[in-house]
Design goal:
The chain has 18 helices and 13 strands. By secondary structure, the chain is α/β, with parallel strands linked by helices. Strand 1, helix 1 and strand 2 form a beta-alpha-beta unit. The structure holds nicotinamide-adenine-dinucleotide (NAD), 6-O-phosphono-alpha-D-glucopyranose and manganese (II) ion.
């Protein structure tokens, strides 16, 4: 069936803190990406219903011609849907808190998508993502799923293994966040930049940053050596990324480049290359999950309450690169614009000396048939070595999930660069098994292969 605008779009994780920003971004682009219906789908009816109040308000500020449907029923959510945006957080912030705090109790990086926390989140998310793909296949109109759900690297590998033909495009807003800062430093618009980049998701490097055909990486390197990847006036930075912890993260680009000045690292490299500093600087009792719950989540839900009580909508959310990027990608997919974006794709030679079956993050032209990756060529041994270690950790984690293998889960944790020893890996894994009861597949061979 061919897709005819105006489209039906379903947002999975309708109750997400990011939903209002994405919908606002859709509303300002309605002429380019015409919609007749937006559907919100979530497992948590109450949370989604609250968020839908803001969504309804945002839509009605722009149009009466887009219907809003709010549902927990997959048939209602996906029947005849043309596009699907996915942003599920399996286990919600409560489980994110465990992902971050359990490793920190053992002086290991506690992070949502990196290290043991990311591996734990991966073990929770693969199965629900596969279920989503199957719902979309069953009910929708041959729809593309544009997926933000984390941990994106592991989710992408899980999909590659289990549903290799599914029309899923996995994306991350970190590179565009970095590009927004680069543009601010250079005094240009983000859209003026053309970058070269290679890596895995949350694990990569910008190798060239062109403006009007000139590589500005040397100029950025000089700036970063003084200020990190921040403008002197940080007020030009996006609200989400101007929280103190994000400011620290962008400042850490400086020490990372003091060590390795060749390329500009993805900010997430701090967790792998500065892991001991990160642990020393973390508060095991109060992590990013607590900041987000007391910040972005609280602001949104308080605003919804005020709106219901007074009819006045306080400033409740922010659009930013996150909302803009997913709509950019959708438009390029829908109308074969062949715009160049950094996305997660199966390598197949894009990075010449990385295995074909790696899910990598590289520039690609986004066409109506999907992403056409751009060839990166050979990468230097240091980066290749780092990537291969991370790749093996992520692939073993996916195998552990599919096979229900405790042994492979332990190998995945041990191989992760944030984890100092097999003892740390085992202690953290065992605590995480308890904390993730009901979310993780049963890691059967724990009992057969491993003696306590
Ligand atoms: P959130 O907890 O506010 O929202 C997530 C929603 O997903 C919740 O309402 C939850 O009930 C719902 N959910 C959980 N499991 C589900 C399932 N199986 N089916 C449908 N809905 C389900 O979280 P958030 O902070 O707004 O983030 C949402 C997601 O987007 C997370 O996975 C986050 O990591 C991801 N994210 C990714 C990027 C990226 O760069 N790829 C950027 C930002 C956020
Ligand atoms: C960046 C990353 C996302 C991640 C988010 C976390 O945007 O690209 O993958 O989910 O940061 O932000 P938060 O504010 O929830 O810590
Ligand atoms: Mn990301």
């Amino acid at each position: 069936m061919s897709k005819q605008a105006p489209f039906i779009l379903t947002i999975v994780g309708g109750g997400s803190t990011y939903t209002p920003g994405i919908v606002k971004s859709l509303m300002v682009r309605l002429e380019e990406f015409p919609l007749k219906e937006i559907r919100l789908y979530d497992l948590d009816a109450e949370r989604q219903l609250a968020v839908s109040k803001v969504v309804e308000y945002v839509i009605r500020q722009h149009t009466n011609d887009v219907k809003l449907t709010v549902t927990t029923d997959p048939a209602e959510a996906f029947t005849a849907a043309d596009y699907v945006f996915a942003q599920m957080r399996v286990g919600k912030y409560k489980m994110r808190e465990h992902d971050e705090k359990i490793p920190l109790r053992h002086q290991v990086v506690g992070q949502e998508t990196c290290g043991p926390g990311g591996l734990a989140y991966g073990l929770r998310t693969i199965e629900p993502m596969i279920q989503l793909i199957d719902f979309v296949e069953q009910y929708a109109n041959d729809a593309w799923i544009i997926n933000y759900s984390n941990p994106a690297a592991i989710v992408a590998e899980g999909i590659r293994r289990l549903r290799p033909d599914a029309k899923v495009l996995n994306i991350c807003d970190m590179p565009v966040g970095v590009m927004r800062n680069m543009a601010a430093v250079l005094g240009v618009e983000r859209e003026d930049l053309t970058v070269n980049y290679f890596g895995l998701n949350h694990f990569g490097w910008f190798t060239e940053v062109f403006v009007d055909g000139e590589d500005k990486l040397p100029e950025l390197r000089e700036h970063i050596a003084k200020f990190g990847l921040l403008t002197e006036d940080i007020s030009v930075i996006d609200v989400q990324h101007s929280d103190p912890s994000w400011v620290k993260t962008y400042k850490n680009i400086k020490p990372l480049m003091d060590y390795f000045p060749e390329y500009i690292p993805n900010p997430y490299m701090q967790y792998y290359l500065m892991s001991t500093d990160i642990v020393d600087d973390s508060n095991p009792e109060h992590t990013r999950a607590n900041e987000v719950m007391a910040g972005r989540e609280k602001t949104l839900f308080e605003a919804i309450r005020t709106f219901e009580e007074t009819g006045e909508m306080p400033e409740a959310f922010h659009v930013g690169v996150h909302g803009i990027f997913i709509v950019d990608v959708a438009i390029s997919l829908a109308f074969d614009r062949r715009e160049r974006h950094l996305v997660i794709v199966e390598n197949n030679g894009a990075i010449a000396n990385i295995p074909d079956d790696a899910m990598v993050e590289v520039p690609a032209y986004i066409t109506s048939h999907g992403p056409e990756p751009i060839r990166v060529g050979h990468i230097p041994l240091f980066y290749k070595g780092l990537m291969e270690q991370q790749l093996a950790s992520e692939k073993l984690l996916v195998e552990a999930t599919i096979e229900g293998s405790y042994e492979k889960a332990l190998q995945a944790f041990t191989l992760n660069k944030t984890v100092p020893s097999a003892r740390h890996a085992k202690t953290i894994l065992d605590e995480m098994i308890e904390a993730n009861a009901g979310f993780w597949p049963d890691l059967q061979s724990r009992h057969t292969l491993v003696r306590n």
